[in-house]
C-alpha cells in the first residue's frame, strides 16, 4: 500500500504509511482552539422551542432491563466489530449467561454518568478509496455495550427533537429528505453566472472537516439553551478517586 503526502511525495514503506495515517487523524480529530465567544443570547432566539419539564423527566427516567434487551436485540449481528471481537450476535446467543452483567453495566452508566474506558474505546477503520490520506473515509468500530448505550440515548431524544429543530433541518430527520436542500441550493444558485443584477457570491465549505472538528463547548451551550437537563449533556467531566466521582 502506498499513498501521497500533503506535499505531493509518495510513501510506500508500511511503517511510514501507518505514521502518515495516524498523524493525519490526530490533526483532524484534535480539538480546534477558538477565542470566538459564544453568544448565548442569539442562541436563545434561534431554536424554535425548549424542552418541557415532562420531556426532561422522560430523558432522565431510569433505564429498564426490558429497554436494554430490546435495544441490544435490535442491533445487527455482525456490524463493525470492535477491538474486543464481541459482536451483537454473541450477546444475543449468550444472553442467558451474560445478560445480567450487561444490564448492570448499562444501568451503572445511566446512574453514575461514568463510562469505562474499555466500553468507550473505538477502532478507526479506513476505507482507502483514494490514494490521498486526507481524503480517506473513516468509520469507528464501537463496542457493543457502547452501541446499546448510544441507541438508548438516541431513542429517548428522538421524541423531543420535533420541539427543538427548525423546519429547514432535513438531515437525519425522519420523514424529511436531504435532497430537498440540494434542490433548494440549485434554485438559489440559478443564474449566478449572469453579469446583470445584484452582486452575489457563494462559498464551498469542506463539510467533512467541519463535522470532525466540532467545538464541543458550543454543542454543550446549545443543548443547555434548548433545555436539555445537565445530566444528559455530553460535556461533563469528573475525576474518579477510590470509586467516587468528583468534579
Automatic annotation (TrEMBL):
Residues 127-233 form the Reverse transcriptase domain. SUPFAM superfamilies: DNA/RNA polymerases (SSF56672). Pfam families: RVT_1. InterPro entries: DNA/RNA_pol_sf, Retrotransposon-Effector_Assoc, RT_dom. It comes from the Eukaryota. This is Uncharacterized protein LOC118348915. It comes from Juglans regia (English walnut). The lineage of its organism: Eukaryota, Viridiplantae, Streptophyta, Embryophyta, Tracheophyta. The gene is LOC118348915.
Amino acid at each position: 500500500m502506498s499513498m501521497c503526502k500533503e506535499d505531493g511525495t509518495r510513501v510506500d514503506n508500511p511503517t511510514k504509511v501507518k505514521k502518515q495515517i495516524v498523524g493525519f487523524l490526530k490533526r483532524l480529530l484534535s480539538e480546534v482552539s477558538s477565542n470566538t465567544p459564544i453568544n448565548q443570547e442569539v442562541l436563545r432566539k434561534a431554536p424554535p422551542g425548549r424542552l418541557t419539564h415532562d420531556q426532561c423527566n422522560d430523558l432522565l427516567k431510569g433505564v429498564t432491563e426490558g429497554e436494554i434487551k430490546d435495544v441490544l436485540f435490535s442491533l445487527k449481528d455482525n456490524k463493525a466489530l470492535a477491538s474486543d471481537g464481541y459482536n451483537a450476535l454473541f450477546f444475543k446467543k449468550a444472553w442467558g449467561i451474560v445478560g445480567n452483567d450487561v444490564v448492570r453495566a448499562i444501568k451503572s452508566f445511566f446512574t453514575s454518568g461514568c463510562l469505562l474506558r474499555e466500553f468507550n474505546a473505538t477502532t478507526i477503520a479506513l476505507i482507502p478509496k483514494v490514494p490521498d490520506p486526507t481524503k480517506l473515509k473513516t468509520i469507528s468500530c464501537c463496542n457493543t455495550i457502547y452501541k446499546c448505550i448510544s441507541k438508548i440515548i438516541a431513542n429517548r431524544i428522538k421524541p423531543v427533537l420535533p420541539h427543538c429543530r427548525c423546519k429547514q433541518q432535513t438531515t437525519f430527520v425522519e420523514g424529511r429528505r436531504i435532497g430537498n436542500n440540494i434542490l433548494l441550493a440549485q434554485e438559489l444558485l440559478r443564474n449566478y453566472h449572469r453579469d446583470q443584477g445584484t452582486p452575489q457570491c457563494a462559498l464551498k465549505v469542506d463539510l467533512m472537516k467541519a463535522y470532525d472538528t466540532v467545538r464541543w463547548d458550543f454543542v454543550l451551550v446549545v443543548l443547555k439553551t434548548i433545555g436539555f437537563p445537565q445530566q444528559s449533556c455530553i460535556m461533563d467531566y469528573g475525576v474518579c478517586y477510590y470509586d467516587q466521582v468528583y468534579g
